[in-house]
C-alpha cells in the first residue's frame, strides 16, 4: 500500500483512520467526564468549608491543563484524517519528503520527518529561552 508515496506493508490507511477515530472518541469521553467532575462547574454549596474554594481553583486549573492536552490530541487526529482524505498522509508538512514509517506507527499523528521534527523542537527551545 502506498501512503504519501511511500510503501507501507504493516500499516494501512484504514487502520490509521480507525485508530484516529477511536482516539477522538476516547478524547471526547474524557472531556465529557472532566466537564462533569470539574468542581468549579459543578453545583456549589451555599456555604463552602474553609479551603474548599482554594481546592476548587487548584483542581480546576489542573483539569484545564489536561483539557488542553486532550484538545491537542483531538486536533492532531483531525489534521491527520484530513491529510488521509487529501492523499497527503506520510509526507512531511515542512519539507515534503516522506515521513519515516516508524514515525507513522506511533504516534500515527506524526506529520513531520525526523529531521524537521528535531529542527522544530530545537526552534521551540530557543524561543522559550529568549
From TrEMBL:
Keyword Electron transport recorded: no
Zinc fingers typed dksA C4-type, residue spans: 92-116
Keywords noted in UniProt: Metal-binding, Zinc, Zinc-finger
Superkingdom, natural source: Bacteria
Entry keyword annotation includes Metal-binding: yes
GO molecular-function term, one example from the UniProt record: zinc ion binding
Chain positions covered by the region annotation Disordered: 32-57
Entry-linked PROSITE patterns: ZF_DKSA_2
Parts of the chain that traverse the membrane: none
Zinc finger DksA/TraR C4-type domain residues: 87-119
Pfam families associated with the record: zf-dskA_traR
Protein name in the entry: DnaK suppressor protein
Organism placement in taxonomy: Bacteria, Candidatus Daviesiibacteriota
